[in-house]
Specification:
It is a single chain. α1 packs parallel to α3 and α12 packs antiparallel against α13 (about 255-265). The chain contains 13 helices and no strands. Helix content is about 60%, strand content about 0%.
Length: about 290
Amino acid sequence: MKNYKRAMLISLGIMLMAYPAGISYAKKPRKAAQPPATAKATPSNPNDPGGHSARGVEAAKQRDYETAIAEFSKAIEAEPGDAKNYFNRGTAYRGANKLNEALADFSKAIELAPQDVAAYVGRGEVLLIQKQLDAALADFDKALQIAPKDVSARRFRGFVFISKGEWEKAIAEYDTVIKSVPNDAAPYERRAFAYRNLKKFKEALADYAKVIAIDPADPDGYRHRAYVYAVTGDTQKAAADYRAVLKMKPDDADAQSRLKALEARPNSSPTPMTKPGVSPAMTSPATSPR
């Protein structure tokens, strides 16, 4: 779940599987080798003139987005009709937080390859970051029309529903995500957040328990479950969860203050002054790798 918690995590979901830092880029498709017509020397990779696409991918892996943008721009100059070059540069622009430029490149990729699911997901994510929720939803809908089982598009669509406060729709979306990735804690956490807002606390507690079972070293699972326990009046279980947070993060001021409040009122249901810190459910999900 930690990959999903970084605020606006740079989710570069393209096609070359290089995902440990949340980054993957489209690699040029290989063509069948052709015998040379003459003895004249040919580039080492005829599908990537000048090697700019490959250098752009390597720069992006290092989060050197400006270099990546420059290399992908050269790749576009060499092959202006290749949608993947625009897709890659759009992803690098997104990494550099140049969202308008990213939006333009993803749109160009869609123009050149209108069935490219990843381009719709990439553009939808940028629109989501810009809080253009309806436009983002349209892109995720289109992606799912093309590829109904695309988990990335469905994750993002669920997040749009959370952002719009459409809790039942969000729950239905994450039901489907969980069927595809049952051992991923993030969709359980997001569904729990939706349940919590509907005051379906039993269901929220069950989902938070699943989050903790999948990732027991993550303090936020305990933190958010403790909040629900406190709201429902189970101060002992709430206190136990806050102690679990403090065992992992002894200097956590939020958990310290909430535990102190619970211990001061052991026989009553405290009213939390504020909601627990920003829920991972309110952080835009990262694109899943291909």
